[in-house]
């Protein structure tokens, strides 16, 4: 059975991992006959958002502890993730990818990636193991794979411009499809960058995961 490592960035679209994308990904992995295990950095979130009002809350939450809610406890600190023990990597989106795993939400093309996240993702790349990035998570790709890496965040002009400014090659993609950079074994899909419903997000995610498991 192929093993997929999944990196989460908290719990909740505005300050952590996009929950629908995360659950759809885990379901798709299982439906393709593979297994998953989740990881997250043991760190404080950039901030906490009230998902009912959209307002920032005066409290602190831990990315790993919040992500454990989605994984039902089947999760470990990212520092112990050994890519040699897994066949592929998957990163759901949500603002946590751009606020906790990186600071893309604040610095755009001048962003940086959390050191442990970068270490793990680059090791998967160096070992030529396939990786899938959903939604806004592909914004990190140019800093992981270097110049010329292909990926998509859908059609948003500002995000795609930043992706290209960082050295990547952005490719427009509809919500029900994915982009494959064959040279780098790298897969991306827009998910909730474009999706208007859970079922729309599922179309591209299911296709991406099917291909990810196939080439793993």
UniProtKB/TrEMBL annotation:
Keyword Lyase listed: yes
Top-rank taxon, per record: Bacteria
Keyword terms, alphabetized: Lyase
GO molecular function list: lyase activity
Catalysed reaction, written as an equation: glyoxal + H2O = glycolate + H(+)
CDD domains: GATase1_ES1 (cd03133)
Similarity comment: family membership: Belongs to the peptidase C56 family.
The protein's role, per its UniProt record: Displays glyoxalase activity, catalyzing the conversion of glyoxal to glycolate.
Protein's recorded name: Glyoxalase
Organism: Photobacterium lutimaris
